[in-house]
């Protein structure tokens, strides 16, 4: 059965665009059921609409708690029949009600080689630490922040003249490559998770 993919995005949505491109090329075998943003100004919403994908705003301020927000999000995603969820620059920590509703079915990417530099400003953290290599990680979402089992990682060099912006741009290219691959692996049922270890069948 074809997976029903929902995408959550808060910002400009270039990773959403990478997923849409793969889907339109026919290399991402999913039904795109919709995009949710917590930010009414997110460019991701326009990108979805431009490709005929339903786009809905769920604003944080309309919900008294993180849990209420999570419950509303779960009902919306379930009402669309979603069975695979891709966070694509969704800059809000989800309540555990969400990961419990979709166990090992939510993907996220992070602009560092986890477990190094979790949380915000990962590229700045990498530069400040002085690492020579950083990159991007695609992982499953559990109840922690950037802690779930890792599916794919790609390394990029950190160059002597890098700023946060130049490093972020290099990592972003890796994200655009890796994320459609990871969603494809999930959508085609090739991902096996044993504890923290993920293998592809
Ligand atoms: C990317 O820079 C990504 O590394 C960062 O958000 C941006 C999303 O870009 N961080 C996270 O996603 C942390 N989970 P986009 O909106 O153009 O896809």
Question: Beta-strand level of the residues, as a percent range?
Answer: 15-25%
Give the strand tally: 9
Q: What is the first-to-last residue Cα distance?
A: 17 Å
On the 0 to 100 scale, the average pLDDT is: 97
Assign the CATH topology.
Rossmann fold
CATH architecture: 3-Layer(aba) Sandwich
**Largest beta-sheet details:** 7 strands, mixed
Under CATH, the homologous superfamily reads: Formyl transferase, N-terminal domain
| Backbone CA Rg | 16 Å
Q: How many domains make up the coordinates? A: 1
Can you give the helix content as a percent range?
25-40%
Element-level helix/strand string: EHEHEHEHEHEEHEE
**Low-confidence region ranges:** none
Taking strands numbered 1, 2, ... along the chain, how are they ordered across the largest sheet? 3-2-1-4-5-6-7
**Could you say which overall geometry the principal axes of the C-alpha atoms support?**
globular
**Helical run tally:** 6
Query: What is bound: which ligands?
Result: glycinamide ribonucleotide
Question: For the record, what CATH class applies?
Answer: Alpha Beta
- Class by alpha and beta content: alpha/beta
Short structural description:
It is built from 6 helices and 9 strands; from the N terminus they run E-H-E-H-E-H-E-H-E-H-E-E-H-E-E. With 201 residues, the chain is α/β, with parallel strands linked by helices.
Could you give the topology of this structure?
Elements: E1 3-8, H1 14-25, E2 30-37, H2 43-50, E3 55-57, H3 66-79, E4 84-87, H4 96-101, E5 106-110, H5 122-129, E6 133-140, E7 150-157, H6 164-187, E8 191-194, E9 197-200
Helix pairs in contact: 1-6
